[in-house]
Structures are given as C-alpha cells and as structure tokens.
Specification:
8 strands; two-stranded parallel sheet; two-stranded antiparallel ribbon; about 5% strand; about 300 residues
Length: about 300
C-alpha cells in the first residue's frame, strides 16, 4: 500500500511534468532561452533519462510506468531537476540533447548486437522451411510470412531505403508508438474487429509496439495494460492477426517460451516454431532449456 508521503510526491511529480512545464513551454517562458519540447511525456523522458538513466534510457533502470515504480528518493531528484528547469537553473535544451544522445547510443548498440545475433542464427533460421513442411498448410503459410516480414523489418532497420525514412512516410499511413510503428491497415483491422473484446484490442495493439529482434513478457504487458499476466495470456491465445501481430515475441517472466499456437511451454506442439521465429529475428534462444536470453523489452507507450 502506498503511504501518504509517497502519494504526495507522485502527485507533485505528475503535475510538474504534465502541467507546469508544458504550460511554461507553450507560453515561451523566459526561464529557458529555448523550449525544444512542449509535450508532457517529453519532459518526463528528459528528466527521467538524466536522473535515473545514468547515461542511457530510464527504461534500462526502471519498470514502466515510472511514476508507480519510482522510490521517494528518485521522485525527489526528478522533482528537483524539474523545478530547476522551471527556474532557469538548468538548461532544458542541453538536457534534451543528452537524453537523445543516450538513446541514440543504445539504439546503435542494440542494432550491432542484433546484427551479430542474426549472423549467428542464420543457419538455424534457414531450417524454418523444414519445420513448416511437417505442419498444416495454414501454419506453413504463417511461418513463411513471418520469416519474410521479420527479414524485411531487419533489413530496413540496418539499411533503410529512402522510401521508408520517417521524412517520407505520409502521416496518414502510420500510427506511431515511438518505439515501433504500426501501419494504419493493421491498426484498423484490430480496432474494428467485432470478435475482439476491448481488452484484447488493447493487448494486440500494445504487442505491435515490440520491435523485431526483441521480446517482452506477459507480466510486462500486464503492467502496461493494468491487468494480469494470465489475462494477457488468454487474450493472446487466439491471435487472428499472426504473424503481423507478433505474439511469438511474448515469453514468460522467467524467460521460458510461454505459449504459442494454443500450446504451452517447450513441450508444446509449436514450441520449435516459436524458437525459429525468435531466432530468425535475432533473439538468442537456448533450445535445450527452452529459454530466451537478453533484456526484456518494456518501453511501452
């Protein structure tokens, strides 16, 4: 149970980044020579990265949502930096640059790691067709489509073509989640599917944020959705949009495979298929133990 002092600090922090700072930015307060951002979550990101991130994104150090997982000490430090920005004692533009640079460095490092993982697993990924031939035709098509999709996503991440850069993608064709972009066609398919409950729609849309080459957990999704891991698992059990909505990127909290194709665990009928899909995207999987290796992706927005 949250004590009164911690709740007060959370309230003060929330008001600071969601009301006070955006208002000053919109009014172009002379407290800062330049206001590079105006939106609440941007102020939160800048302050959290500089206070908690320690040279990297704050999500490396703290679970999301930050406000519910910060200690009283962290809250006080974030509030102090926010107030210093309010009073012009700290340069917001400089802090913003530090935050962006830290995230750019992480993205570069992640891309290099993913490339090495893909090179290590390329021979194993090439055997995906052998697995597919032993499965029903519908599952064969799903696997081949997923492999093709993940390969193209990976290629674009390393060698983006001019037609796919952010400056050339029409805003009307994409729905941005910062960490990932979902095309409007898929977004419409999910949100308009009459067979889905509101919770399942939210779960599937959240899952679309998980980038290729990464994995998340049922618990992480549950925290983001303010639900339970069991509810998330049930919601993803029958995914009508696989593999475009990548349920294979969700594993159990201990790193074990979790569910796939209605089966659970490493002994499940489609466990080998899930391993192949993850490896094809660059995720390291210990097939003997049936567990993934690496950091859980948890940058939901």
């Amino acid at each position: 149970m949250i004590d009164g002092k911690l709740r007060d600090l959370q309230g003060e922090w929330h008001k600071l980044y969601s009301e006070n700072l955006p208002s000053l930015a919109i009014a172009k307060s002379p407290a800062q020579t330049r206001w590079p951002v105006h939106i609440d979550h941007c102020f939160a990101r800048i302050i959290l990265d500089n206070v908690i991130g320690n040279g990297g994104p704050w999500t490396n150090k703290l679970r999301s949502p930050a406000i519910h997982n910060m200690t009283s000490v962290q809250l006080r430090k974030c509030i102090a930096l926010g107030q210093a920005i309010e009073g012009g004692k700290e340069d917001l533009a400089e802090l913003h640059t530090k935050s962006l640079q830290a995230r750019a460095n992480k993205q570069k490092h992640s891309a290099e790691n993913s490339k090495r993982k893909r090179e290590t697993n390329v021979r194993e990924a090439a055997t995906l067709n052998d697995v597919a031939t032993s499965l029903p035709k519908k599952r064969q098509l799903d696997i081949k489509t997923a492999l093709s999709f993940s390969h193209q996503t990976t290629k674009d991440a390393i060698e983006p073509s001019p037609s796919k850069t952010s400056s050339s993608i029409p805003v009307a064709l994409t729905v941005s989640y910062e960490a990932h972009t979902i095309d409007s066609e898929l977004h419409t398919l999910i949100t308009s599917a009459s067979s889905l409950t509101p919770f399942r729609r939210r779960a599937l849309l959240a899952l679309c944020q998980v980038p290729s080459g990464h994995f998340t957990t049922y618990a992480a999704l549950a925290t983001h959705l303010s639900s339970s891991a069991r509810a998330v698992g049930n919601g993803l059990r029958s995914n009508p949009f696989a593999p475009r909505v990548p349920c294979h990127r969700v594993v159990a909290s201990d790193g074990s495979l979790g569910g796939f194709g209605g089966e659970w665990g490493i002994d499940g009928k489609f466990a080998r298929e899930k391993i192949k899909l993850l490896r094809a995207e660059g995720v390291v999987v210990d097939a003997r133990k049936g567990k993934v290796e690496g950091e859980v992706w948890n940058d939901f927005r």
